[in-house]
Design a protein that fits this description.
This protein has about 130 residues and is α/β, with parallel strands linked by helices. It is about 25% helix and about 20% strand.
């Protein structure tokens, strides 16, 4: 993914915190949290495919969780720096997948009412 392909809002400076919205909202759902966190962090709220000005998914007709998770890739720091990811509901599933894909770049993962579809598929109902 390229930075210009992902619509986002940002505030503050410092260590990056990526916010991933739920399926019925968009990046703006995080406005009040961004206001609070921006005193200490560089907060970036992304819009997933089909939200805000991020394009609608059309690549091969089948959208996978990893496709949404890759929207975070342009915001990953270089060198040894790491990010924190916060995800709400479906955004929690995207955040979990992003943390798995980019594990060497993620310091913290915070989930708010996450959908466990990824874990259920990977480990089965009883293990998740």
């Amino acid at each position: 993914m390229k930075l210009e392909e992902t619509d986002f809002i940002e505030a503050g400076s410092g260590e990056k915190v990526i916010l991933v919205h739920s399926s019925v909202a968009g990046a703006k759902q995080w406005r009040s949290l961004m206001e609070t966190l921006s005193n200490d962090f560089h907060v970036i709220a992304i819009n997933l495919f089909g939200y805000g000005d991020t394009r609608v998914w059309e690549d091969d007709g089948k959208q996978r969780l990893k496709d949404q998770a890759r929207l975070i890739e342009p915001f990953l720091p270089t060198g040894d720096d790491k990010i924190s990811i916060v995800g709400h509901s479906f955004g929690g599933s995207v955040a979990m997948k992003a943390a798995a894909i980019f594990k060497t770049k993620v310091r913290r993962l915070a989930l708010i009412e996450p959908n466990p579809f990824y874990l259920l598929k990977k480990y089965g109902r009883s293990e998740a």
